[in-house]
Amino acid sequence: MPAAAVSGTRVPVHLIAKLVSEGSKEADLLRDYPRLTAEMIRLAPVYAQAYPPRGRARKQQPWRDRASMRSVRTRLS
């Protein structure tokens, strides 16, 4: 499932929320992402908190803790 984008753009909401939480200025984000509005930037952290990203759970790998097997090649006659 693709990440949620800001409506009418292809900019991921969670990216904008992360940039805001890291201290990016609203003016810088508006310059870097011209399709966004100030309201979209202010609401991105609210949306990201209400809808955390859902990633796929990683499959367990039963062979992960085992030593690697040595492959042996034999010549066929």
Layout of secondary structure:
Elements: H1 13-21, H2 26-32, H3 38-50
Helix pairs in contact: 1-3
Structure commentary:
- The protein has 77 residues and is mostly helical.
- The chain is built from three helices and no strands.
- α1 crosses α3 (38-50).
- The mean pLDDT is 83.
Which properties best describe this structure?
77 residues, mainly alpha, 3 helices
Number of helical regions: 3
What are the secondary-structure elements, in order, as H or E?
Answer: HHH
Mean pLDDT: 83
Helix percent reads: 25-40%
What would the principal axes of the Cα set say about the shape? elongated
Q: Which parts are unreliable, with pLDDT below 50 for 5 consecutive residues or more?
A: none
The rounded Rg comes to: 23 Å
> By helix and strand content, what is the structural category?
mainly alpha
Major sheet details: none
β-strand amount: under 5%
| Straight-line distance between termini | 52 Å
Number of strands: 0
Write a brief structural summary:
It is elongated and about 75 Å long.
